Structure prediction request, 161 residues.
Amino acid sequence: MNKFVVVGLALVIAVEVLAFMTVEHRVVPWISGGIAAVVLLVGIRLVYRGSQSEPTEPPVDGPAESMRRWIVRTESLIRWADSSQAEWDRHLRPRLAREFMMATGQRQGRDPAAMAATGRMVFGDDLWQWVDPSNVSAANARDRAPGREALYEILQRLERV
Prediction:
Protein backbone atom coordinates (compact mmCIF):
# COMPACT_ATOMS: atom_id res chain seq x y z
CA MET A 1 0.00 0.00 0.00
CA ASN A 2 2.88 2.38 0.79
CA LYS A 3 4.36 1.71 -2.65
CA PHE A 4 1.02 2.57 -4.25
CA VAL A 5 0.87 5.91 -2.42
CA VAL A 6 4.42 6.80 -3.46
CA VAL A 7 3.80 5.81 -7.08
CA GLY A 8 0.52 7.76 -7.13
CA LEU A 9 2.17 10.87 -5.69
CA ALA A 10 5.03 10.59 -8.20
CA LEU A 11 2.52 10.25 -11.03
CA VAL A 12 0.64 13.38 -9.95
CA ILE A 13 3.90 15.36 -9.70
CA ALA A 14 5.09 14.08 -13.09
CA VAL A 15 1.79 15.06 -14.76
CA GLU A 16 1.95 18.54 -13.20
CA VAL A 17 5.52 19.04 -14.42
CA LEU A 18 4.53 17.96 -17.94
CA ALA A 19 1.45 20.19 -17.84
CA PHE A 20 3.51 23.23 -16.80
CA MET A 21 5.83 22.62 -19.71
CA THR A 22 2.93 23.09 -22.11
CA VAL A 23 1.66 26.46 -23.20
CA GLU A 24 -1.79 26.09 -21.61
CA HIS A 25 -1.28 26.62 -17.86
CA ARG A 26 -5.02 26.87 -17.21
CA VAL A 27 -5.34 23.10 -17.73
CA VAL A 28 -2.79 22.14 -15.02
CA PRO A 29 -5.23 22.09 -12.04
CA TRP A 30 -7.75 20.04 -14.02
CA ILE A 31 -5.21 17.46 -15.13
CA SER A 32 -3.56 17.10 -11.71
CA GLY A 33 -7.00 16.92 -10.06
CA GLY A 34 -8.08 14.21 -12.49
CA ILE A 35 -4.92 12.15 -11.92
CA ALA A 36 -5.26 12.55 -8.11
CA ALA A 37 -8.89 11.39 -8.31
CA VAL A 38 -7.89 8.33 -10.36
CA VAL A 39 -5.12 7.47 -7.86
CA LEU A 40 -7.54 7.85 -4.92
CA LEU A 41 -10.22 5.71 -6.57
CA VAL A 42 -7.75 2.94 -7.41
CA GLY A 43 -6.38 3.10 -3.85
CA ILE A 44 -9.86 2.84 -2.34
CA ARG A 45 -10.66 -0.08 -4.61
CA LEU A 46 -7.44 -1.88 -3.61
CA VAL A 47 -8.15 -1.35 0.08
CA TYR A 48 -11.76 -2.50 -0.28
CA ARG A 49 -10.75 -5.59 -2.30
CA GLY A 50 -7.97 -6.41 0.20
CA SER A 51 -10.41 -6.31 3.12
CA GLN A 52 -12.92 -8.51 1.26
CA SER A 53 -10.45 -11.15 0.08
CA GLU A 54 -8.87 -11.87 3.46
CA PRO A 55 -10.15 -15.20 4.76
CA THR A 56 -11.62 -15.16 8.21
CA GLU A 57 -9.16 -17.27 10.19
CA PRO A 58 -9.65 -18.08 13.83
CA PRO A 59 -7.44 -15.96 16.05
CA VAL A 60 -4.05 -17.47 16.76
CA ASP A 61 -4.58 -16.96 20.47
CA GLY A 62 -8.10 -18.35 20.60
CA PRO A 63 -9.64 -20.65 23.19
CA ALA A 64 -8.29 -23.82 21.56
CA GLU A 65 -4.75 -22.46 21.55
CA SER A 66 -5.06 -21.35 25.18
CA MET A 67 -6.32 -24.79 26.18
CA ARG A 68 -3.47 -26.48 24.30
CA ARG A 69 -0.88 -24.31 26.06
CA TRP A 70 -2.51 -24.99 29.45
CA ILE A 71 -2.41 -28.75 28.83
CA VAL A 72 1.27 -28.60 27.82
CA ARG A 73 2.14 -26.58 30.97
CA THR A 74 0.20 -28.97 33.18
CA GLU A 75 1.89 -32.01 31.65
CA SER A 76 5.27 -30.35 32.27
CA LEU A 77 4.37 -29.72 35.92
CA ILE A 78 3.40 -33.35 36.38
CA ARG A 79 6.64 -34.55 34.77
CA TRP A 80 8.67 -32.28 37.07
CA ALA A 81 6.74 -33.58 40.06
CA ASP A 82 7.67 -37.15 39.14
CA SER A 83 11.32 -36.46 38.25
CA SER A 84 14.26 -35.46 40.47
CA GLN A 85 14.34 -33.12 43.42
CA ALA A 86 16.52 -30.75 41.40
CA GLU A 87 13.72 -30.39 38.81
CA TRP A 88 11.19 -29.85 41.62
CA ASP A 89 13.42 -27.18 43.17
CA ARG A 90 14.01 -25.46 39.85
CA HIS A 91 10.48 -25.45 38.43
CA LEU A 92 7.81 -26.27 41.00
CA ARG A 93 9.07 -24.91 44.31
CA PRO A 94 9.31 -21.26 43.12
CA ARG A 95 5.80 -21.40 41.65
CA LEU A 96 4.30 -23.04 44.69
CA ALA A 97 6.09 -20.65 47.05
CA ARG A 98 4.95 -17.63 44.99
CA GLU A 99 1.34 -18.86 45.02
CA PHE A 100 1.56 -19.49 48.77
CA MET A 101 2.94 -16.00 49.43
CA MET A 102 0.28 -14.37 47.25
CA ALA A 103 -2.52 -16.36 48.91
CA THR A 104 -1.42 -15.70 52.48
CA GLY A 105 0.18 -12.26 52.12
CA GLN A 106 3.41 -13.57 53.65
CA ARG A 107 6.80 -12.36 52.48
CA GLN A 108 9.95 -14.37 52.98
CA GLY A 109 12.13 -11.31 53.54
CA ARG A 110 9.94 -9.68 56.18
CA ASP A 111 9.63 -12.43 58.73
CA PRO A 112 10.89 -15.86 57.69
CA ALA A 113 9.77 -17.43 60.97
CA ALA A 114 6.19 -16.22 60.51
CA MET A 115 6.17 -17.47 56.94
CA ALA A 116 7.45 -20.89 58.03
CA ALA A 117 4.85 -21.07 60.80
CA THR A 118 2.05 -20.17 58.39
CA GLY A 119 3.37 -22.71 55.89
CA ARG A 120 3.39 -25.46 58.50
CA MET A 121 -0.18 -24.57 59.50
CA VAL A 122 -1.40 -24.66 55.90
CA PHE A 123 0.55 -27.64 54.57
CA GLY A 124 1.78 -29.56 57.59
CA ASP A 125 5.42 -30.48 58.17
CA ASP A 126 5.53 -33.15 55.45
CA LEU A 127 4.31 -30.94 52.62
CA TRP A 128 5.82 -27.62 53.79
CA GLN A 129 9.29 -28.94 53.09
CA TRP A 130 8.35 -29.13 49.39
CA VAL A 131 6.94 -25.59 49.25
CA ASP A 132 9.41 -23.76 51.52
CA PRO A 133 11.55 -21.55 49.24
CA SER A 134 14.48 -21.67 51.65
CA ASN A 135 14.61 -25.48 51.68
CA VAL A 136 16.51 -25.87 48.39
CA SER A 137 19.42 -28.25 48.76
CA ALA A 138 21.98 -29.13 46.11
CA ALA A 139 23.09 -32.18 48.11
CA ASN A 140 19.80 -33.99 47.47
CA ALA A 141 19.47 -32.95 43.83
CA ARG A 142 19.48 -36.53 42.50
CA ASP A 143 16.83 -37.77 44.95
CA ARG A 144 13.31 -38.34 43.69
CA ALA A 145 10.77 -35.57 43.93
CA PRO A 146 7.68 -36.26 46.05
CA GLY A 147 5.54 -37.03 43.00
CA ARG A 148 2.19 -36.00 41.64
CA GLU A 149 0.28 -37.10 44.75
CA ALA A 150 2.18 -34.56 46.88
CA LEU A 151 1.74 -31.91 44.18
CA TYR A 152 -1.99 -32.61 44.09
CA GLU A 153 -2.26 -32.34 47.88
CA ILE A 154 -0.25 -29.08 47.92
CA LEU A 155 -2.47 -27.59 45.22
CA GLN A 156 -5.61 -28.69 47.10
CA ARG A 157 -4.40 -26.96 50.27
CA LEU A 158 -3.43 -23.84 48.35
CA GLU A 159 -6.88 -23.76 46.85
CA ARG A 160 -8.46 -23.87 50.32
CA VAL A 161 -6.43 -20.82 51.40
